[in-house]
Amino acid sequence: MKYHTVHEAKTNLSRLIQKACEGEEVIIARGKKPVVKLVPVGDAMRERVPGRFEGQFSWTDDAFAPLTDEELCELGFE
């Protein structure tokens, strides 16, 4: 595995980005110690789809009811 020094990376950043986008592993090192791996971000964020999780979650009617005094004490609130 070939490491690129920070100086080399600064000088050839465009070329290293292109290599990473082509699937090549690009490691940047400080001295002999590897510190950064250059990887492509990939596709842009997926578009939000309203209702994507519809029907996958359920809860009881009392799920959002206020807690009782006993439950509050158990949680450390007095």
The ordered string of helix (H) and strand (E) elements is EHHEEH
Largest sheet: 3 strands, mixed
Q: Which stretches are poorly predicted, pLDDT < 50 over at least 5 residues?
A: none
Strand residues, percent: 15-25%
Identify the strand order in the major beta sheet: 1-2-3
N-to-C CA distance: 60 Å
Approximate shape = elongated
Fraction in helix: 25-40%
Features:
about 80 residues; alpha+beta; 3 helices
Tell me what you see in this structure.
There is one protein chain. By secondary structure, the protein is of the alpha+beta class. It has a domain at 3-38. The protein is built from 3 helices and 3 strands, in the order E-H-H-E-E-H. A 3-stranded mixed sheet has the order 1-2-3. Strand 2 (26-30) and strand 3 (33-38) form a beta hairpin. The longest helix is centred in the N-terminal third of the chain and has 9 residues, at 13-21. The chain is elongated, with a radius of gyration of 26 Å.
Summed up:
With 78 residues, the protein is α+β, with helices and mostly antiparallel strands.
Q: What is the element layout, followed by pairings?
A:
Blueprint: E1 3-5, H1 6-11, H2 13-21, E2 26-30, E3 33-38, H3 69-74
Parallel strand pairs: 1-2
Antiparallel strand pairs: 2-3
